[in-house]
Amino acid sequence: MAPLATQSSIPPRLMSLMRTITIGYPTEQNLNAIYSAYLMPILEACIAPLGSPVRVEAMASVMVRLYEEVRSNFRPADRGHYIFTPRDLTKWTIATMRHELTDESKVIEVMAFESRRIFMDK
User: Where is the Dynein 2 heavy chain 1 cytoplasmic ATPase lid domain (predicted)?
Assistant: First the structure.
C-alpha cells in the first residue's frame, strides 16, 4: 500500500521557517448551505419550478449526504486513491451546467450521471 501524504512529517527545522495554518473541512450544514447557493442559479436558469429554495436545498442535501457516505465508506487507508474532498462536490455542481436541463427527470438523470462519473472514476 502506498504511504499517504498525511503520514509524512515535515522536519521541524523547515517548519520554523514557514507560517502554517490548518483548516478543516466544512460541516455538513455548511456544505448544504454552500451547494444550495451554487445550485440555485443553475436550476433557476434551466427550470424555474426546480429553482425554488426548498427543492434546491433538498437536492444539495442529497448531494452532501452521498458525498459523506462515499467519504466514510471509501477511506484513503483502504486505497491510496480514495481521497474525496468538497472539491468533488464543486466538480459535480459545475458539471451539471454542461447539460441541457429541460425537465425534472432530465435533472435527476444528469445528477446521477455526474455523481457516478465523479465518484466511480476514483
Answer: 38-122
